[in-house]
Sequence to fold (128 residues):
Amino acid sequence: MTENRVRRVAEQIKKDIGGIINYEIKDPGVARITSVTDVSLSRDLRHASVYVSIYGSDSEKEETLQALNRASGFIRTEIGKRIRLRHTPEINFRLDNSIEYGAYIESVIRSLKEEENDSNDSGSGQDY
Fold:
């Protein structure tokens, strides 16, 4: 199977699962702000790892991940209705912390810049 087709199918699955999570799943265990960041498909399109970013506390993230894995059968059925494939992939949800990690790195860089500016400001008060 060509890599291009796998990539196109993964992108379509990503869009569809995002819509299903936001508009069709009624489970109160799913956090309000949950987004699909990536989908990784096997070459034979039988297994999909769906990476989700969840906004909330660690317990909310864990609860949402468990709720999504419980709903994976429903989500798989909906994907099968929307995308014509010979085999609808088995879905496994995984937590993606890359957005939080990026925000953390950005805050560290910002604090380093502020420290640098503070040290430059305090050292520039020379008398002539």
In short: The chain has a mean pLDDT of 88. The domain at 3-97 is CATH 3.30.300.20 (GMP Synthetase; Chain A, domain 3). Helices lie at 3-23, 58-70, 72-82, 98-123.
